[in-house]
Amino acid sequence: MRAGMTHAGLGTIRQVRLADVAARTIVREVGAASDGRETGGILLGDISTDGVADVRHAGDPGPAAVRTPASFLRDRAHAQQLADTAFEADGSIWIGEWHTHPTTEPVPSKTDIETYCSLLADPELQFTVILSIIIGPLPSPHVPDIVMIAWACTSSTITAIPVGPTDHVDGQGLLPT
Ligand SMILES: [Zn+2]
């Protein structure tokens, strides 16, 4: 049994808390992907019974990720390795993903929605909700004031949700800095 199954009863996310280390990974990867192609990774943490998604770690795309100007396909083996490491470290589970939209609004695309629907429909994964963080068009690749919107995706709804800082201290990421 996978750890994620303990959250199978939850239906929604009403708030996101992004740990500093996860935010730093995202900012770093966005900066490293200033070539006009999408980038992204998985989000690891947990979702509380009151609907707070605690993002403790954000993954990088991984060496086998397929990045194009309008799509991003994660490196699944790399994602699994990060998920295993995070679970060992602090019990974090796979709660969603983040990716960039270099030229369009940070709103889930048709392709994104299809991806989330297929993840939600996969009985092995047991997702009832997927957290999606999308980073919108950047004023400049090296300016870190990124436009970020978090979305709670279920099989029937997609809702924008507020992102705030985490309320616990977490200085250790999974990735080499
Ligand atoms: Zn997208």
Describe the structure.
The protein has 177 residues and is an alpha/beta fold. It has a single domain, classed as 3-Layer(aba) Sandwich (Cytidine Deaminase, domain 2). The protein has 3 helices and 10 strands. A hairpin with a 4-residue loop joins β8 and β9. The longest helix has 15 residues. The protein is globular and about 40 Å long. The N terminus is likely disordered.
Question: What are the salient characteristics of this protein?
Answer:
177 residues; 29% strand; Cytidine Deaminase, domain 2; two-stranded antiparallel sheet; disordered N terminus; binds zinc ion; 23% helix; alpha/beta; globular; eight-stranded mixed sheet
Produce a short descriptive summary.
The chain is built from three helices and ten strands, in the order E-H-E-E-E-E-H-E-H-E-E-E-E. It has helices at residues 20-32, 76-90, 110-121; strands spanning 15-18, 40-47, 52-58, 66-68, 71-73, 93-100, 130-135, 148-153, 158-161, 163-165.
What number is the mean pLDDT? Answer: 84
Give the C-level CATH assignment.
Answer: Alpha Beta
Largest sheet: 8 strands, mixed
Q: What is the number of helical segments per DSSP (H or I, 4+ residues)?
A: 3
What is the domain tally?
A: 1
The fourth-level CATH homologous superfamily is Cytidine Deaminase, domain 2
Question: What are the SSEs and their pairings?
Answer:
Layout (H helix, E strand, L loop, with lengths): L14 E4 L1 H13 L7 E8 L4 E7 L7 E3 L2 E3 L2 H15 L2 E8 L9 H12 L8 E6 L12 E6 L4 E4 L1 E3 L12
Parallel strand pairs: 1-3, 1-10, 6-7
Antiparallel strand pairs: 2-3, 2-6, 4-5, 7-8, 8-9
The site of zinc ion has 5 residues, from loops.
